[in-house]
Amino acid sequence: MKARKSSLNRSTKETDVSVSVNLDGNGKTSIKTGINFLDHLITSFGKHGMMDLKVNAKSNDKIEHHLIEDAAITIGLAIDKALATRKGITRFSYSSVPMDESLAEASIDLVKRPFWKLNLSIKRSKIEDMSKEDLEHFFQSLLQNLNSCIHLTVKYGENDHHKVEAAIKSLAVAFRTAASYDKKQKGIPSTKGSM
Fold first, then answer.
1. Is residue 176 over pLDDT 70?
2. Tag placement on the chain: N or C end, fewer CB within 10 Å?
3. For 53-149, where are the alpha helices, taking DSSP H only?
4. pTM
């Protein structure tokens, strides 16, 4: 099978973001955004998605919201590009991931028809060094730019940190399975013959 890799650079007056991804990697990550909790979430996404992921993001205007948004957009676009025609993939997947008292579920269809539904159930206004609205916007921007149909829900939990970690890990595990090659699938996994 052809290697599913891509690199993408996004430069604006607000940020400079570069992303490289290998969907058939081993979960090796190098993440540098300058925002500790964001680095942790993206690292978890690469590690549990078993994709090699390198992200370098720098703010030009010192506004964290722009950096978080542009990092998510660029990651999503790079993964979409690496998936290419999506020939031979499993396409659908579901994952339920616990983190202590919290449980999150992700359902994915890697069809090239973007739709997302998100419920993180965050109560606090800030988790570690990220605001609630920036955390939610990170997930929204990532899901929107993966060019797929994704439902991501925190079912329950008390600790907001645990909820968000369970969410990113369930997304990663579901993506890993959906993007994996299906030995029985010879072409595009759609009755239409295209995604």
1. yes
2. N
3. 64-83, 132-145
4. 0.95
Using CA atoms of 25, 27, 33, 39 in order, give the dihedral in degrees to the nearest 10. 160
Domain ranges of the chain: 5-179
Class of 5-179 in CATH: alpha beta
Tokens representing residue 62 in the block: 């010192």
List for the chain the helix, strand, coil content (%; round to 5): 35, 30, 35
CA distances from 12 to 20, 30, 53, 67 (A): 18, 22, 22, 10
Q: Would you place residue 16 in the very low, low, confident or very high pLDDT band (cuts 50, 70, 90)?
A: very high
Q: What mean pLDDT is predicted for residues 47-72?
A: 98
Sorted by sequence, the CB contacts under 8 Å of residue 120 that are 6+ apart come out as: 135, 136, 139, 152, 154, 163, 164, 167
What is the per-residue pLDDT for 186?
A: 81
Q: Which residues of 102-133 are buried (b: 16+ CB within 10 A; e: fewer)?
A: bbbbbbbbbbeeeebebebebeeeebeebbbe
User: Which pLDDT score, from 0 to 100, does residue 1 have?
Assistant: 66
Give the dihedral of Cα atoms 27, 32, 33, 38; nearest 10 deg.
40
Q: Would you say 167 and 159 are in contact if contact means Cβ atoms under 8 Å apart?
A: no
Angle between helices 132-145 and 160-179 (to 10 degrees): 10
Phi, psi of 158 (to 5 degrees): -115, -35
Q: Of 119, 145, 138, which Cα lies nearest the Cα of 57? A: 138
